[in-house]
Specification:
alpha/beta; Helix Hairpins; Chitinase A, domain 3; five-stranded mixed beta sheet; two-stranded parallel sheet; transcription regulation; DNA binding; TF_GreA/GreB_CS; Transcription elongation factor GreA
Length: about 160
């Protein structure tokens, strides 16, 4: 079984979603199915079919979350230090072309949210940065062409 890196924050979010699905969503859909069954003929009962479809989605998501949590390798970012870019690092970059400063945190696949500055460990920018240190340049293959960034700062928070 391949372990998947994940921050403690990401692990907690997935665990919270799993608990919500099991304790709130699953019982609600079971109640909806029971109510729809009381309406009679199931072959033409849209409420029943919609509830069964939702139940299928919930059960699939529960299985997916349980698998992800079982394979998770939780990394405590606060215990990391240094100036080398690794999983969990918050990296401040300077775009070589525009001189614009950007900051990204390298996180697990399920935690990635570019709007919040979180990039997946699998993303092209994270792969280009891993192993580099402050002052190094990283070339990233982007859809609009290659971009060059200089690593200005590496933090673990």
């Amino acid at each position: 079984m391949q372990r998947t890196p994940m921050t403690a924050e990401g692990h907690a979010a997935l665990d919270a979603e799993l608990k919500h699905l099991k304790s709130v969503e699953r019982p609600a859909v079971i109640a909806a199915i029971a109510e729809a069954r009381e309406h009679g003929d199931l072959s033409e009962n849209a409420e029943y079919h919609a509830a069964k479809e939702k139940q299928s989605f919930i059960e699939g998501r529960v299985a997916e979350l349980e698998d992800k949590l079982a394979r998770a390798e939780v990394i405590d970012v606060t215990k990391l230090k240094g100036d080398k870019v690794v999983f969990g690092a918050t990296v401040t970059l300077i775009d070589a072309d525009t001189e614009k400063e950007v900051t990204y945190r390298i996180v697990g696949e399920d935690e990635a949210d570019i709007a919040k500055g979180k990039v997946s460990i699998q993303s092209p920018i994270a792969r280009a940065l891993i192993g580099k240190t402050v002052g190094d340049e990283a070339e990233v293959a982007a859809p609009g062409g290659a971009r060059v960034y200089e690593i200005e700062n590496v933090e673990f928070k």
